[in-house]
């Protein structure tokens, strides 16, 4: 049990929180000895603030997707429509040294995206998929960036919480001798809440000073805020959900029986939705249970649809379900048709479109899926179709949605590449730009001999007469990276050989100098099993004398 309004007694990981008299008495004594041991501290701490050149931020902005769950209530609901999204892979941006702790791309009012690499710092990407700026942070990044109301970008590394101006200039650094472990959330007054793996929640002022801290005693998963500024905490190995007042004192606790893996969702009526393993629970604002619905598979928090219904995508099952917010009964269910290794949380657009990503069971392939508001399938797009040389893929915790309906998702790939043992991408899916280059025509031999070089000519045109680059997949796990620039309509000549018999699908696409990516052009190539395997004349004679014999061998040679 919690000592209400003061502190939380920490038991061993995985055990319930207990109110033992002896422990409680000893704990209270300790509070007199050290005011900084546990509990709420409203005293300001002295911190070292780095102050480089000051860059004006300007007036407040409205942001498209400023934090992990879109807003402080963690709804994962966009204010923009996405019914026009066709699932076309518009572009992807390479991130060196991807991270297993993937992030949701956050988006500012200009459509600029912010994402991080575990080892390689903060990336800021223009809406067309080109790099705006990159900042190395020289330490592991523990969670994703968030954007403040004045445009400040907050990002944390081990023992350092940092703020940047929108142009990448450092605003301040707050040294905290702890490891951050949950995604920050920002209140309307600019207070940033961020948690650590040893059980502290810090309320950080916009100027980089600590307003207060609360000690929970368990590694924090996340925090959400309701419309009154109350804070809801979830933590690993903790079977309680905590509600704090805005000043950092405890309001109530709710027993979930098992721990949760995400910050709770706060509905428009103040209902709190959380997902301990195999249950979705609705909790009244006073901390009493509203309803509890069993679901298949554990997962992150549900998302909120425009009509108020609850969309839940379990992490390790094929189901996506829509639930009535009043009593938790299931309105509809969609199954992807396989048992995924992982599946993201659902993201919902203002017109009710539902987007989520998943991997196959081996973790080799990843897909982005779109559902209509009634739960019927709209489309499925392959995220990994043009990613070379990897043996495993992980997906980000949720997609985000841009103002034009583009859906963004992050991936992380395990690789044997000697330079990048792992890497990641930000992927953009949406509508084909009408000014993108045409699908390249691929001309050359459609059949040949193993080991021989063949010449192929590719040609694409840009409606805007822009210079273009070409990318080629040869169908044998090899590729030719972006080559160019070439003038619109200028051909690219390139040679290639295949080392094994079989049928290969060659795919190529073009992008212009403004990073508009066009559709794929395709050519099928056949490499028959060579007659020279023994002796060409022997096999020809054999097939002539016995035209109806050896059908399988004949098929191989003629394939």
Q: What is this structure's SSE topology?
A:
Blueprint: H1 21-33, E1 88-96, E2 106-107, E3 113-117, E4 121-125, E5 131-135, E6 146-147, E7 153-157, E8 160-164, E9 170-175, E10 185-186, E11 192-195, E12 200-204, E13 210-215, E14 220-225, E15 231-235, E16 240-244, E17 250-255, E18 265-266, E19 272-274, E20 279-283, E21 289-294, E22 303-304, E23 310-313, E24 319-323, E25 330-335, E26 347-348, E27 354-359, E28 366-371, E29 377-382, E30 392-395, E31 400-401, E32 407-414, E33 422-430, E34 441-444, E35 454-459, E36 468-473, E37 479-486, E38 492-496, E39 502-512, E40 521-527, H2 536-545, H3 551-558
Antiparallel strand pairs: 1-33, 2-3, 3-4, 4-5, 6-7, 7-8, 8-9, 10-11, 11-12, 12-13, 14-15, 15-16, 16-17, 18-19, 19-20, 20-21, 22-23, 23-24, 24-25, 26-27, 27-28, 28-29, 30-32, 31-32, 32-33, 34-35, 35-38, 36-37, 36-39, 39-40
Features:
Methylamine Dehydrogenase, Chain H; mainly beta; single chain; 5-stranded antiparallel beta sheet; 40 strands; Immunoglobulin-like; 4-stranded antiparallel beta sheet; 559 residues
Describe the 3D structure.
The chain has 559 residues and is mainly β. It has three helices and 40 strands. Mean pLDDT is 83; it is low at 1-61.
Brief digest:
This protein is mainly β. It is 6% helix and 37% strand.
Indicate the low-confidence ranges by residue numbers: 1-61
Total domains: 2
CATH topology (level 3) name of the largest domain: Methylamine Dehydrogenase, Chain H
Averaged pLDDT: 83
Q: What is the radius of gyration computed over CA atoms, rounded to a whole number of angstroms? A: 27 Å
Query: How many β strands by DSSP?
Result: 40
Oligomer kind: single chain
CATH class of the largest domain: Mainly Beta
Portion of residues within helices:
under 10%
